[in-house]
Amino acid sequence: MGDDFQLIPLHGKHPANVREKNFNRFINSHTPAILLTTDVASRGLDIPSVDLVVQIDPPSDPKTFIHRCGRAGRAGRRGLSVVMLHPGHEEDYVSFLEVRKTPVIPFPQPISISDTEAAASMNVARKAVLKDRALHDRGQKAFVSWLRSYSKHQASSIFRVADLDWEALGKAWGLLKLPKMPELKKFTGDKTLGVDITWDTYAYKDKQREKRRLEVLQETAESGGHQESSNKRRASESLAWSNKIENKNKKLKRREQKHARQERDRWEKMTEEERQKARETEKLVAQIREKNEEERRLRRAATKAGAGMSGEDKGDEFHGFDD
Asked: Which residue stretches belong to region Disordered (predicted)?
């Protein structure tokens, strides 16, 4: 953030004393500050003088959406809450909120970022990551965690993993490569994200951790691990094409059966109230999809869209903060 803002983290995995310390740093800041937080701050915290709330990911529950918005514009002040949506299916979230009686309006000042600006931001992030392999590891874990959360969204017909642009997301996260995930098994794009790096020499800043990495690398080399890997690859390539197809179909069938079991188990673990809520959500989504399908065919892909809501009066257009 440079010298313009303080960036202060707050999330549930912080120890209680750290959460309290960071919370107090934010509310007592005498200079502009940004609180980077999870839903741990969406309710129960009275934070004065918050002008803007930006929701990077739309929450599953409209009630949570309202609670997040309510952090801005408190005690009679004007405030703004913005939720970021990708063009296409995610725009149906606006109709989803309307059905749930939580109307939003288009952001009056569309966010426009050029490819050059996006590339510059990505390069800044990657430059920092290249200095310490630990940052790469954290980025990989964070990306996987985000994807799991996205895939479990209550409105799964709107927020679909199949619609994600993997390369664009990886670059936006400042990743050096896409992580290994089941969702990427059929992905045929560039998993390296255009990064040419010698992974054997990519080091940890922490000396003890780097020493251990080098020891493991040496042990693998001495045990013939690379040769074994090469032999396995050649053996795989020597399989008849028909056998490959058959094995692939078997794996696909097992995967589908596993998914069906997981869905059945998840449903059985739900309370009746949760099941009813899930049914209502899917019904609403189906109605929204039917309503917007014709419009979608006529609408051209737009740049990243946003929807904003005033913290004080959700029906008014936002005209600026009070002095």
From this structure: 218-323
Beta bridge mates, 52? 80
Strands (DSSP E) found in 216-280: none
Spatial distance between the Cα atoms of 197 and 308, rounded to a whole number of angstroms = 41
Kindly report the length of the chain.
323
* Cα separations in angstroms, 149 against 51, 66, 144, 159: 27, 19, 9, 11
**Burial classification of residue 295, based on how many CB atoms lie within 10 Å of its CB (0-12 exposed, 13-18 middle, 19 or more buried):** exposed
Q: Is 61 helix (H, G, I), strand (E, B) or coil?
A: coil
Location of structure tokens 């809501």: 309
| The overall pTM is greater than 0.85 | no
CATH class given for the domain over 6-100: alpha beta
Query: What is the 8-class DSSP label of residue 314?
Result: T
The label of the residue with tokens 């990708």 reads 86
Q: What is the DSSP string of 162-211?
A: GG--HHHHHHHTT-SSPPP-GGGTT--S-TTTT----GGG---SSHHHHH
Strand-pair partners of 53: 81
pLDDT band, residue 303 (cuts 50/70/90): low
Residue with tokens 């200079």: 31
- For 134-169, the pLDDT digits (tens) are 999 999 999 998 998 888 888 888 898 988 999 999
Count of CB atoms within 10 A of residue 124's CB? 11
Contacts with 256 (C-beta within 8 Å, 6 or more apart), sequence order = none
